[in-house]
Known about the structure:
Layout: H1 8-33, H2 39-43, H3 55-82, H4 85-91, H5 94-105, H6 109-123, H7 126-136, H8 142-146, H9 148-164, H10 169-187, H11 194-199, H12 203-214, H13 221-233, H14 238-242, H15 245-253, H16 265-271, H17 273-290, H18 294-308, H19 314-339, H20 341-365, H21 371-386, H22 391-398, H23 405-434, H24 436-456, H25 466-474
Helix pairs in contact: 1-6, 1-7, 1-9, 1-10, 3-4, 3-6, 3-23, 4-7, 4-10, 5-6, 5-10, 7-22, 7-23, 9-19, 12-13, 13-15, 17-22, 17-23, 17-25, 18-21, 19-20, 19-21, 20-21, 20-24, 22-23, 23-24
Amino acid sequence: MNGDRVRPSAFLVQGLSTFAxxxxxxxxxxxxxxxxxxxxxxxxNGTVLSAPMxxxxxxxxxxxxxxxxxxxxxxxxxxxxKFGRKYAAIMYGLPFVISWGIISVARWPxxxxxxxxxxxxxxxxxxxSSVYISEIAQDSIRGALTSTTVSGYFVGLxxxxxxxGQLSYHHVAYVHLAMSVMYMVILTFLKESPVYLIQIxxxxxxxxxxxxxxxxxxTSKEVEVEITKIKLQMDPRIDKILQDPNTxxxxxEKQYDQTPRSESQWKFxxxxxxxxxxxxxxxxxxxxxxxxxxxxLQVYAEPLFKEAVPTMQPNLCSVLLxxxxxxxxxxxxxxxxxxxxxxxxxxxxxxxxxxxxxxxSQLHLRWGPHWLTAATIYAYSFIYNFGAAVVxxxxxxxxxxxxxxxxxxxxxxxxxxxxxFVTLIIFNPLVDWLGLGPxxxxxxxxxxxxxxxxxxxxxxxxxxPADAIQKLFLKKEGRDKKVVK
Length: 485
């Protein structure tokens, strides 16, 4: 509801439910962090495996998680509408259980590689988590809650690094397996998304779900109005309805009660101009923010740190980076509903551009001390994850109408996997052509392009319900409208 105040009890229930759902991205962090402290042992003669891993096997171990994520992402849109948000989220926890189960007992290297690839299938479930959270969260706190899907990943990454240096190989695998099982069990206690329940014609259950998350009676006016809004958002004529504000208000006041028509997500998308424009905006923001160079620094940070701070242990470097990512994403969660998506994306894109330029010039011209390289990487990591890394996922979760929300989130996540792959593929050829430093000038320019698009063309969606967001994409002047609180 636009401008709605959240009761403390509702905030608690929605917050705890969000942490439970975002737990899935923590499992993704576990599977991504695990190879970083096991690869050395896998390649040594003292490996716990039946034989040391070859260089090719090591490369596959580090890359097949991304392949699994890309392959499973298109299924997310189908799963959230076929099985519901709750059971789709539980289903995406299963690959992690299977993965860690295999790792716990396997000693044959190809089987370990297969297990990690299976974990990648579960990583695709972030799209499901985002949809689920956005549909149980009230509009005024939706940004903060949906951003936890990013923070959750960093929590898992940091936890994996932390226990990796303390526990034995098998004990780490057992802990990760137990955490994966616990995720699936916890989710059984949550209510299904009210949006999905209305989609399948279960209005009574939808009212009970809203009552559970809002902490109000199922027969209250608040629940009644919210159900009316959700049904309105599912009408294929939504674009035409929204162009007349008086009609929209009248339909809500008269308790709009048209049963949502069953229509494929693609057909709905082709009919909805606002959804098409939202899709373009989301894919553009996701692509540009990934091309800002963060994935390159994550992959190549260790050799840069070895040069800048030779005395720093590689594991400590990884832990400190994970802490930086986590602190920035937590701060973003507190700020995103206060300052809005557009200002946060614009400012952090400019800050990331500055850091990339400084880092590029340092690598290119060697004008400063070695420690400046490390300091710039940490500064960039904090600034980027304070806004530019999080905003695309928040936008993806909130700008789509219910009928295409699953499809929109799937396409956005697929875009993320593809752009990560493209960035890493073109990085080394660009370094050979331009040199390492100048490549970061390119990343800096991309950051400025992202800031320009965000400032001048990206609509502000802070605190708005889905139907109000569609109006911003239907009207050219929508990007200039201010959200009045």
